[in-house]
Amino acid sequence: MKMKKLLSVMLTVAMVASMTACGGQDQVTNNETAAPAESQAVETAATEAETEAVQAEKPTTPQGQLVIGSLTDLEGEFYDPAFNNNATNYKMYDLLHGYSTVAYTKEGKFEVDSTVVKSLEATDNEDGSKTYTITINDGLVWTDNTPITAKDYVFAILLEASPEMGGVDGYPGTNMTQLVGWDEYNAGETENFAGVHLIDDMTFSMTIKAEELPFHYDLYYASAGPRPMHVIAPECAVEDAEAGATITGDFTTELLMETINNPETGYRFNPTVTCGPYTLVSYDASSRQGTFEVNPLYAGNYAGSKPMIQKVIIKTVKDATQMNELEAGTVDLLFSISGGDSINAGLDLVDAGKAQKNTYFRNGYGKIQFDCSQFPTDSQSVRQAIALCLDRNEFARQYSGGYASIVHAAYGMAGWEYQDSIEWIDENLDTYEMDLDRAKEILAADGWNKNAEGGEYTEGLRYKEVDGELKPLVIEWCNTEGNPVSELLSTMLPANMEEVGMQLNATTTDFPTLTSAIDHQGEKIYNMYNLATGFSPASSPWYYYSTDEKWMTGGYNANWIKDQELADAAGALKAIPYDANDEWLEAWRNYIKVWNEKLPDVPLYSDEYHDFYSPKLQGWEMTSIWDWDDALIDAWVTE
What we know:
- By secondary structure, this protein is of the alpha+beta class.
- It is 31% helix and 21% strand.
- Mean pLDDT is 90; it is low at 1-56.
């Protein structure tokens, strides 16, 4: 059965990758054998016909309630990922804060959002820079019915790049580093942002630095979103000058600490004036449950779609009991489910007619993430030795029950690059098959050849002389409670690591504490963490592995790795045109080969995700590139 499942995974991902590469998509299923082409065509036609029949029943006004269960807690932060980038919060930002000028479509393309933008003009300047001039549509409003104008877009850019905002819990302000004048404005050397201009009430412009061009996601540089100036800086104004736009009035960190960072009323924790498809009704910190309702003034997404589910509740579920909750009706949707036990329990509910399912391949991977700024995981050799202590094939088999495959670098099964490189990967990447003897050799070559007394190492815990001091090979590992990955690693890693001369100290905590440690905001920083990552539509490895200090915060270089060879390999991707697939693939292969050697993570698996949901949920079409916050807008419930 296991081999049949994995065969199905590989056959189906080939179809997904080929469609994704040309901008389309496919609905993934877990068929155990491949159907003939003719049968597939008939089945697809039948499915489309069924979809059309169901779509006719879609309501024209919002109704009903959907309870979404998430394994990752919803935290009480609702501003943006720079403050909190856990997976659940990340998606809630898009539900609350809308009207970005550029949208990522269901087909996997960036395009100008015509619901928001009346016109967008790109001008190539003589100095090599590029200016985007954007006019916003009339009629867009905040939830308090205040009109949204170009001033709100310019205010957002200036606010979040300002040193005043940087004083609010160290907000990094790196959203617009590509704009002319960002460096001087962010450093507080000038009050005018040279690359940003307010042209009239509905029009503004942004000028991209020449050194930031060309850029792989070219149109993405024209992306901007609004913030309600009348809420965040009510006594201030946005004015334009030849030197660039500026915020006038009493604009200070002290003001923002009150309007944004006040724990009760601040926009970070309690945004009452927003413009996305949903509004925040309440958040319970004790249960970490959030309640959201439709924004009746929302004009629609890029396709004009408006939400038809009146109330959405996000609640935390536990891996061991989540399917029981779905069966009991205390949750209506469980998304991105992985792990054989959970998937099989969900499939049992589907077979019993108590749930529906949707499957797709993961655009990301599960991993052991290293902090490469901490001793001893600042050593590439130590990271490689840890990888060699784990039988990743057996881990993936036990964890996924046949619904995953191991990966050897920073890629997922949904990526077209992976599908085009399967044979190349087999021939060029180190697969780090479990090999304790090789791990010992690597550690010895790295200088871990002393015992506690400074003599020659023979057995037990290894030591290394560093600046005249003997240091032990102790790895501090932070993991989360009730996590099956943590539990499996606890049975597979410690004995092997001890065998090669390492000591693994495990600390089990909650997810917010883990993420704070990763961000260097907690009381303790660890050597390694186990969690998972998903690639964003504008996945940017040139930032994720940059050696520039400004990318070490805000969830970018989360490994805190400063390796110039890796930074250069990732950086080579940045300027490749979006449609230059051959050039991109060649550079991507070099990047993951370097990554595979440096090993900032131990990749554990990339899997086939399953959504399980109540029969009352209709029109659910989540994919590897169309996440649950997007799919929610097109779905509805029947009560």
